[in-house]
UniProtKB/TrEMBL annotation:
MF terms in GO: magnesium ion binding
The protein's name: RusA family crossover junction endodeoxyribonuclease
Matching InterPro entries: Endonuclease_RusA-like (IPR008822), RusA-like_sf (IPR036614)
Protein's organism: Pseudomonas soli
GO biological process annotation, one example: DNA recombination
Length: 147
């Protein structure tokens, strides 16, 4: 029987969108590489995910992901803006793009929480301002009827 308890954790710090692979040439040969910021963020995600799993086996069933991406209010903004942003009256329509943060989180959890992110069949994602930046993640295993 599979453990159907949700896996929950917070990836601390400013959310980072997954960067596009870059190309460089070394000795005349093209090499693809993941930008450092993306690689270190995915490492942080894997570490937090590993802690949250606490020795559980990898999820192999379909899952639903709930994610709340919390961005800091820019320091350059007014007190009024900050109050409105924290009250949820102003939304963060700035980088990082929500889909790139989702991709970074999903890729960082491959082989850590689930076998592969193809298992995500439902997702509820919000991007908001908050006092403490980070990404709140809740992964809910879904029961699947076997035909």
């Amino acid at each position: 029987m599979h453990d159907l308890q949700p896996v929950q954790f917070v990836v601390p710090g400013d959310p980072v969108g997954k960067g596009r692979p870059r190309v460089s040439t070394i000795g005349g040969h093209a090499r693809m590489f993941t930008p450092k910021k993306t690689a270190s963020y995915e490492g942080l995600i894997a570490m937090v995910g590993t802690e949250a799993m606490a020795g559980r086996v990898l999820l192999e069933c379909p899952v639903m992901v709930e994610m709340r991406i919390v961005l800091p209010v820019p320091a350059s903004k007014t007190k009024k803006f900050k109050a409105q942003a924290l009250a949820g009256e102003i939304f963060p329509t700035k980088k990082p793009d929500m889909d790139n943060v989702i991709k970074a989180i999903y890729d960082g959890l491959n082989g850590i929480v689930w076998k592969d992110d193809v298992q995500v069949v439902d997702a509820i994602v919000r991007k908001r301002y908050g006092e403490v930046p980070g990404v709140h993640v809740r992964i809910i295993p879904l029961l699947q009827e076997v035909a």
